[in-house]
Amino acid sequence: MVKAGLEDIVAAESSICDVDGTAGRLIYRGYDIHDLAENSTFEEVIYLLWFGQLPTKSELDKLTKDLNSNRALPKPVIDALHNYPKKALPMEVLRTAVSMLSMYDPDGDDNSIPASTRKATRLMAQFPTIVAYWDCIRNGRDLKAPKEDLTIAANFLYMLKGETPDEVSTKSLDIALILHADHELNASTFAGRVAAATLTDMYSAVVAAIGTLKGPLHGGANQEVIKMLIEINDPEKAKAYVEKKLAEHQKMMGFGHRVYKTEDPRAHHLRIMSEELGKRLKDERWYKMSREIEEVVFKQKGLYANVDFYSASVYYMLGIPIDLFTPIFAISRMSGWAAHILEQLSNNRLIRPRADYTGARNLKYAAITSR
Ligand code: ACO
Fold this sequence. Notes:
Elements: E1 17-20, E2 25-28, E3 31-32, H1 33-39, H2 42-51, H3 57-68, H4 75-83, H5 90-101, H6 113-138, H7 152-161, H8 167-180, H9 187-196, H10 202-213, H11 221-232, H12 235-247, H13 265-281, H14 285-301, H15 307-317, H16 325-346
Antiparallel strand pairs: 1-2, 2-3
The structure holds acetyl coenzyme *A.
């Protein structure tokens, strides 16, 4: 029997990421996400995902240098960004700019593992530039050249806001990037692997993944969460709002998960960050509303918050525009997509499942005049 949505179907062997939905555990290459969120950096996690182990100091220095020196976009890509309609969604812009970047990659159509790793490095470096530049361009702000001495998180905030971010903002974003970096065969990663398995190029596979992440049932959910919080706007009103939504059988964005049947371990860290950022800003509305909503949804539906629920208030309190929430998810997940595409390429077989045909059979063609 076909399982709708391929639920619980094992479609690949992978040594990158393990999700234990019953125990609520997330493992990158053998390391627990809690350990990495508390002790690591996003750059280290990229190395871990791509090369299978935590880097030595010199390995990390080399990757960091490669990432930081590849942040600039080719001029024709910047010119194209200026020509996009100002109302274009940042995820549309990211998808389109990444597709364009492939035409400027010095490795061309070389699909070898070394060339694909270099392409992944450039993409990883250029994603934040595209997202930050698009926000500047659509709002008429000057573009800041990327700073090579800043981390991915700090440089992104710098290019976005035009000033070097404080430590708390940088650390918060860095942890969020670690938490979103990979998640086994989630929909966008699966899309990327399916594309890569045809032996298309890294860019085409990443474009497929970006388009898939954009949907509100996947990465797009974090934007819907903050819209809901803004609509409620008052912790006192949260309970009644959620009860009404659930009574109308509406979906609560940021809740539920195909794999986790208990707390999403990533939500734990984002919840703490949401509380801390609220205290720092002396505005705990977003955190308090979120807690209230979480309680009601769990009581009534037994559903847990997923990664998108608390990331929404975290990004909002970092002063990030709402429609950049999903692109930030993409910046982080680019690391996981690349790891999976490289793994697919290193032991490839075309991914081509079957469908259980339920349509008509044995019909006879009738001329259009007699239909
Ligand atoms: N709000 C209300 N009810 C829900 C929710 C929700 N967020 N999620 C699941 N349910 C209910 C469904 O209505 C269904 O109930 P029923 O059996 O009475 O019809 C039951 O729980 C099972 O839900 P499905 O939609 O079949 O679960 P599925 O595994 O297909 O979907 C998904 C998982 C897409 C994440 C779903 O929970 C959802 O739509 N959540 C909201 C969107 C969201 O937050 N997406 C981000 C996911 S995390 C990520 O991609 C990074």
